[in-house]
Structure prediction request, 126 residues.
Amino acid sequence: QVQLIESGGGLVQPGGSLRLSCTASGRSFTNYAMGWFRQAPGKEREFVAAVNRTGTNTFYGDSVKGRFTTSRDNSKNTVVLQMNSLKPEDTALYYCAAKYTTSGTVYLADSSYPYWGQGTQVTVSS
Prediction:
């Protein structure tokens, strides 16, 4: 199993940036594909970004493409989500998620991920 802890959320003005981190405990982090999701009040959970277990392949949701970047450092058991040009509609609780895999696939569906962090709040407001 793996335990996930997100950090880096907060309040930021529109147009600003935030960097979220997700640190995993447990062994074999390199065998976990990682995903980022978000959920705003009254809305369904939304796919944000995903990275494969080696960090060589990423995928982004349409609403964040060109503004957000995800990457991972397997030596530190960490995946990050760099968020630039933030908009009020980016306000949500952001989660990282993990899926054990031996393939190089990225996973886009939240149902693919059995392990989830507790979430970190991102609020974009002036």
